[in-house]
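Inverse folding, one chain.
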């Protein structure tokens, strides 16, 4: 394997790799050493090399002997993460190299064994760690986002030896939320004691949340502009002509002004607008 093939293999595997894996792929130790000396590769630490432009997070994980985990791994996978205060990593129990001063380190045993080459935790481990680390609301947002994207399934998760916090989330999580806000809304409104249904098809289109039989709550994200906005307005009008009541709120309102949103919905329920007449 020449240097060009070494670079190609490294790019396919994320730009950071163990030298043993590179050797197993066909690169001789001489070629690996030559690539390091010419700057084609850089040594991260003993047994690990990286391309010069490799992902900085992966390089840092390899340097410290950890894997990217919890909310940091969820973000990398494109899941809904409401907040990430600092990097989150996982390390074997009693590991001595983890950067405890610069990151949140999770030391517990993984639910799914980690491959020695892995620098990002498997999704099942990510969800278990999130359950241990985060409050229920942001944790459930990540769980439902993962289920919605079919990165794992309730069946697989249910067969794992889950800790109590993860088992609680497993019991609640469903793959129906198109966004984190659609997870938050029913979670915050459970106390109303009325039926809450997500992604119900009404008059040819899904609605974000149906409360009772007639109260519809729609959440506008950044894509609700132009043709999308016109279609939303037209659908709202048809819903109201068929006896539904529609409350439309924005991302900013749900995240930054929840008391106002809560007040609108609670007042509508108090008036019985969720009931069929």
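Residues assigned per position:
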């Amino acid at each position: 394997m020449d240097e060009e093939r070494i670079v190609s293999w490294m790019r396919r595997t994320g730009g950071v790799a163990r030298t043993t894996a590179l050797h197993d792929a066909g690169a001789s130790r001489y070629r690996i050493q030559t690539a390091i000396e010419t700057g084609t590769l850089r040594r991260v630490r003993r047994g690990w090399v990286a391309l010069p432009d490799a992902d900085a997070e992966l390089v840092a994980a390899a340097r410290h002997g950890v894997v990217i985990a919890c909310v940091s791994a969820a973000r990398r996978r494109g899941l809904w993460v409401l907040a990430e205060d600092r990097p989150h990593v996982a390390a074997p129990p009693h590991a001595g190299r983890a950067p405890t001063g610069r990151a949140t380190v999770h030391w517990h045993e993984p639910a799914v064994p980690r491959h020695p080459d892995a620098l990002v935790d498997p999704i099942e481990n990510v969800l278990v760690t999130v359950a241990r680390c985060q409050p229920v609301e942001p944790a459930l947002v990540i769980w439902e986002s993962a289920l919605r994207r079919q990165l794992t399934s309730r069946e697989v998760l249910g067969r794992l030896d889950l800790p109590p916090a993860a088992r609680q989330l497993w019991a609640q999580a469903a793959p129906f939320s198109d966004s984190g806000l659609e997870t938050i809304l029913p979670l915050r409104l459970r106390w109303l004691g009325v039926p809450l249904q997500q992604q119900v098809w009404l008059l040819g289109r899904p609605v974000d949340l149906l409360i009772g039989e007639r109260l519809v709550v729609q959440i506008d994200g950044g894509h609700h502009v132009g043709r999308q906005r016109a279609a939303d307005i037209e659908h709202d009008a048809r819903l109201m002509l068929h006896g539904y009541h529609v409350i439309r709120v924005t991302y900013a309102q749900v995240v930054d002004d929840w008391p106002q949103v809560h007040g609108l919905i609670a007042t509508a329920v108090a008036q019985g607008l969720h009931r069929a007449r």
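The first helix runs from residue 3 to 12. The mean pLDDT is 91.
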